[in-house]
Amino acid sequence: MPSQQCISLAIMLSPDSQLLLAKIMLTLGHTELHIETSRLSWAASAGFNPLAIFRKLDHLNTGYITIEDLSIYLADHQVRVPLPEQLFLFSWFDSNGDGKATYEEFVRRLRPVDYPREVGETLGKYGTPDSDFDFLSVVLRELECVKAVLGLASEFAQRPDYSLSRAFFAVSKGKKDIGVIVLGRFLEQTLGQSLTPSLLHAIIERLDLDEDGRISQKDLSIFLQRITHILAESDSKPSSPLKLLRVKEAANGLFRTSENGPIVEKNGTLGSAVDFFVKVIACQKDLEISRQRLATEHEISLLSLFRSFDREKKGVLTLSDFEFSLSTLQIPPNSPCLSLLIRHYDSDKDGCLSQGDFCRMVLSASPEYNELYCLEGRRRAGLGEISGNARETMRGIIEELMKFEGELEHLRGKLREKEIDLRGLFGEMDVDQSEAITVGDLKQYLAGKQVFPSLLELVALIELLDGNRDGKVDYSEFLESLSPKSISDLAS
């Protein structure tokens, strides 16, 4: 898609959608100011001890708290909160979205702005009897915000022009990030009223995940994506637009076959062909998360990245190009996995990756994330010019891509060890006997085995097996995809 077309697409957020986005931000800002009042009140008391509360939540002494810890604590104190609201509340503490809130993440939400870091961390283990009351007063303030924001976000996410990139562009107007002046101008134009500096700073405080004092496209995208994920998880309608917006599960490395069904671990024992598909889906989730992170890096342009890898300027990437780039990123050499990676994405089977192949390798399964590459103002930095954080993200996706290829090859080897009859398996999966496996066939086959992936997971699995990209898998493609490539034990 041409760059100008992408940019015009990003601009197209309707006035009604902009109003919903402005209301979400306004709700966050007012809540932050109210919570700051509760924080100051708590901090002024003798019982201010967030560490004691953290220890109560972390009842297993793991050094972090999870959504389960928070749920148990709320239930123990007779606070009944629906699961979607619990997830949103927990995401407030879990700033990096890894499913674990450390003490540093936790206390950031409880300590007043500019409050000394060491105060409140050296008191007794259990604090005072009022500590729980003061903590819950902050939590209840946040839950008021949660209800309002989820309602507005549900309406916003189901609008036809909803888009992460459009949302950011609507506020930033093409700027690299959003500061107080840019935010104030957007809200004033959208709401028809001028807001106080303290309220604008409060909004930025809520959305600024990396604590640099500004809202980047990554900050806003992660916030909105978390909300749509939470809404999708709580939506029982299988055809809901929110279900189609979901691009990842609660990422803990596990694949749940049903709400109350068995849990299959990604690295567990391979006992059947169904286990193979379950484990591949679990691996694909980890890879998708890395692709999404790359898309949110403002410094990274796909074209500049491709040109950085193409050190000989041939217009294609060879194995030696990748090995050189890996050394630049300080990734240990792994020629077998690199060979598998190139073979997987090499569409014309010439042993090299074209620019299109490279883009297919790193692009997310979600158009919402891929649109971020088209935003105006995105840097065109090469591999040697990006910051340390962007370099770490780039390193992460290359390592995840190679890890996926290694694990996939390891699973293929296990299929051969089990002497799985691939011809018979293909016939069983070809439900309509059309000599090709489609998304519908795969869904019906796995459902018969009590495995229920999402639509996006099914599509990703078909794409993995579909060599000629025609949307279906014939037997030759199936055999090629599931047969070992003579490289064994890569993931052992």
Quick overview:
With 492 residues, this protein is mostly helical. 58% of the residues lie in helices and 3% in strands. It has a two-stranded antiparallel sheet with strand order 1-2.
Q: Give the count of structural domains.
A: 2
Shape: globular
The CATH class label of the largest domain is Mainly Alpha
Number of helices: 23
Quickly list its features.
single chain; 492 residues; mainly alpha; Recoverin, domain 1; 2 domains; two-stranded antiparallel sheet; 6 strands; 58% helix; disordered N terminus; disordered C terminus
Report on the architecture of this protein.
The protein is mainly α and 492 residues long. The protein has two domains: 3-207, no CATH class; 255-492, Orthogonal Bundle (Recoverin, domain 1). It is built from 23 helices and six strands. The protein has helices spanning 3-11, 15-43, 50-57, 67-76, 83-93, 103-108, 130-157, 164-172, 180-191, 197-207, 217-234, 241-245, 273-295, 302-309, 319-328, 335-345, 355-362, 367-370, 388-417, 422-429, 439-448, 455-465, 475-482; strands spanning 64-65, 101-102, 177-178, 215-216, 254-256, 263-265. The strands form three sheets. Strands 1-2 form a two-stranded antiparallel ribbon. α7 (130-157) packs across α11 (217-234) and α8 packs across α11 (217-234). The radius of gyration is 24 Å and the shape is globular. The model is unreliable at 1-10, 119-127, 235-269 and 487-492 (pLDDT under 50).
